[in-house]
Amino acid sequence: MSINVNGFKKYGLSERLLDAIEAKGFASPTPVQREMLNLDSFKRDVIVRAKTGSGKTLAFLLPIYNEGNLDSGSPKVLILSPTRELALQTNAEACWLGQNQDISTASLVGGMDMAKQIRELRKGASIVIGTPGRTLDHLRQGTLKPEGIHSIILDEGDRMLDMGFKEELEAILQALPKKKRTWLFSATMPEEVMTISKKYLNEPLCIDLVEDE
Ligand code: ADP
Ligand code: MG
């Protein structure tokens, strides 16, 4: 291991993850990544407010990958993103982070071939990254099986609600198992985001990295 990833070493990350981070060339975690890696319990619900560009994607992917429990076979983690571009970008980050492990992902985004997405799910994707509309389509038609999902990450919560996905989000949250962990990431915390949080998160830990202006 080179000294390049020194800043990541004190968090108990697996060698496989450290190797992937080293290959990417990242030297140390950003503040939001440090907060997530330092959580006392990865089991509890969390709300995070941190600015755009602060590294929120790895802030949730690192603990999820490090925890393991991602054996292929069926979806375990669902990540919701506001746009196709962001979902595909998150999928790309998940792929490089998991490059040394046998973990497969599926991207369920609108405007793209449904059959290909169904094949990815059938092959046993354990991490599913989707936009709310297309993800709900797969849940409703039975091609995305919710039973084994133990974690849901609502990424860019403010943008998802700005874009009018409230109904889809609620329908998805209601279709998932009751016993699950929910992490909500957002750059801002307007009232609509807090409403979703109060309704669906269980005594969340709040991590706020945005100074009051
Ligand atoms: P956010 O979701 O908060 O807007 P992203 O997760 O998209 O931020 O990250 C912003 C950029 O920073 C991306 O290009 C990402 O690859 C890069 N990045 C993330 N973590 C690190 C890190 N620890 N060191 C250097 N660059 C990083
Ligand atoms: Mg982001």
From TrEMBL:
Ranges for domain DEAD-box RNA helicase Q: 6-34
Residue intervals passing through the bilayer: none
Domain of life according to the entry: Bacteria
Domain Helicase ATP-binding: 37-207
Q motif, short sequence motif: residues: 6-34
Family as reported in the entry's similarity comment: Belongs to the DEAD box helicase family.
Name this polypeptide is given: ATP-dependent RNA helicase DeaD
Boundaries of the shown chain within the full protein: 1 to 213 of 496
